[in-house]
Specification:
Strand content: 25-35%
Number of helices: 12
Strand order of the largest sheet: 6-7-8-5-9
Number of strands: 23
Length: about 500
């Protein structure tokens, strides 16, 4: 397609529906009015509006910074090499399919009677990571054949006619990348009524669908498809500029790499770890990453290989995981799930607020637990969480690690504006160990003086207990159909609690 023609067609259609378009009018600042509207200051006057959509492309990060957002979007140099006309394509009407070579890392497509190559370099170059200049006007960047020489040689070997026709034109231009290569589309965290539609490394090919879904999000409250994969709230504060620089370059470099099941990419690991990381690593843990947290995916028994081996067949850790599952089913298991998103919600309006928020009744007494689902305004599912009553107007809310910003943002947007509710994000202050399995009561009983019987400590209840020397908020619940407890605690006590439980459960080790 012709990007300029498509853009003009969309603009013409928008204006026919009443849209106003102001060209050559830079935005200089964005602020909030006392009435909670947005005030967009431009060189030709101010615009007041309820919603803003940041679809500023290369400049999206700089626009986001105007409202306090650090968007993980990095401009990267991307080269295109156009070879001369191929005799077999000239005046024949042939249309070749797009060719992708994952081993050499390039795509090749027909351009009139010639062939165009887009390489993905092993050592890609970031372009203005500090922020794209405002006066950049889509001018070409200096090309660098040296950086892509190996890729060009591989392409000529694959398509020998390229050597005969030679290079006709070179182009180097910037495109944007995020840490995982996916776009940032959806509501911005901490900026009500501010939407993002940026970070598109495939450019105009994505404009129709993401434009439609963004409009649905604004007008109808949600898009027609699950947008979690590109929601900008899938990243937290850990996705800073240093993290972005390493991860975006890794994603660019691996753009055409073959993706294997259960693959964990290596760049920027150990960003967020619990106090148990080194202990678990010595015990054979092979880690994965969720919302920046390092979490054990499986454990290698003594003498077994601890690393992943990429394969499309049954992985080498298959039997190890099977043994872990049998151990939990027959005896017990201990998991470090400290990455759980954890919030303390309190204040005189909290009960009414949570009752409105969740599709379930709240726990009616201190120490009781309820599971619940947060729904959107159309009744659609957003997330599930557990709610524990800590006091008359205080609750402990726990949800998935990957949903920390998603859930917090939704709660903050719906909380009353009369300051009757306070939400404290205690995720990084509280650890969470899960002890589960038919022997879990016997193991936990060796570490505490609390009565753990069904009568004294029934399902879906909470007690403040000591495990060894450490204070623990013990939640009697589980999601695997087994007896078990979630042991929440101040993070500094994690090592003592873990070692105490491991010693108590030594006789049940596999």
């Amino acid at each position: 397609m012709d990007p300029a023609g498509v853009t003009q067609a969309l603009a013409k259609g928008a204006k026919a529906k009443g849209a106003e378009i102001y060209r050559f009018n830079p935005v200089t600042a964005i602020t909030r009015t006392p009435g909670r509207e947005w005030l967009v200051r431009t060189e030709k006057g101010d615009i007041t509006c309820r919603y803003i959509v940041n679809c500023a492309g290369l400049w999206a990060a700089r626009i986001g910074a105007m409202v306090g957002l650090e968007l993980p979007i990095l401009p990267m140099e991307h080269q295109h090499i156009l070879f001369g006309d191929v005799p077999e394509l000239k005046d024949t009407g042939l249309e070749l399919p797009l060719l992708r070579d994952p081993d050499t890392s390039y795509y090749m497509r027909q351009e009139m009677a010639g062939l165009l190559i887009g390489p993905y370099e092993k050592d890609p170059a970031a372009w203005h990571p500090e922020g794209v200049p405002w006066d950049f006007a889509a001018t070409a960047l200096p090309p660098s054949l040296e950086r892509i020489q190996e890729i060009l040689e591989g392409a000529v070997q694959r398509v020998p006619t390229l050597k005969e026709v030679g290079i006709q034109h070179q182009v180097n231009g910037p495109i944007t990348y995020t840490p995982d290569g996916g776009a940032l589309v959806g509501p911005a965290f901490g900026a009500p009524d501010f939407f993002i539609n940026a970070g598109h490394c495939f450019g105009i090919t994505e404009c129709a669908t993401f434009g439609l879904w963004t409009a649905q999000w604004i007008v109808e409250g949600r898009p027609e498809v699950d947008m979690t994969f590109c929601d900008p709230r899938r990243y937290g504060d850990y996705a800073n500029s240093a993290y972005l620089f390493r991860k975006a370059r890794e994603t660019y470099r691996m753009m055409y790499a073959i993706e294997f099941p259960h693959q964990e990419r290596p760049a920027v690991r150990r960003v967020k770890t619990t106090p148990l990381y080194d202990i678990l690593e010595k015990q054979g843990a092979s880690f994965g990453q969720t919302y920046g947290w390092e979490r054990p995916n499986w454990f290698a028994p003594q003498g077994a290989e601890q690393e992943y081996r990429l394969t499309f067949k049954r992985p080498g850790w298959h039997d190890h995981v099977g043994a872990e599952c049998r151990a939990v089913r027959e005896r017990a298991g201990l998991l470090d799930l400290s990455g759980f998103a954890k919030f303390e919600v309190h204040g005189p309006g909290t009960e009414v607020f949570l009752d409105y928020l969740l599709a379930n009744t709240l726990p009616d007494r201190v120490g009781r637990i309820r599971g619940g689902h947060m729904l959107d305004r159309a009744g659609g599912f957003k997330t599930d969480m557990t709610v524990t009553r800590l006091g008359r107007d205080r609750f402990y809310v726990v949800s998935a690690a990957a949903a920390e910003r998603l859930d917090l943002d939704w709660m903050q947007k719906l909380m009353p504006r009369d300051n009757s509710v306070t939400i404290d994000n205690v995720t990084c202050r509280h650890g969470a160990l899960v002890l589960t399995g038919p022997r879990s009561r016997e193991i936990l009983a060796q570490t505490t003086g609390a009565d753990l019987s069904n009568r004294a400590f029934p399902f879906l209840t909470m007690k403040e207990i000591l495990v060894g020397f450490s204070p623990v908020r013990a939640l009697r619940l589980g999601f695997a159909g087994e007896l078990g407890w979630e042991l929440h605690h101040p993070l500094e006590y994690s090592r003592d609690i873990y070692q105490t439980l491991m010693e108590a459960g030594e006789e049940y080790a596999w």
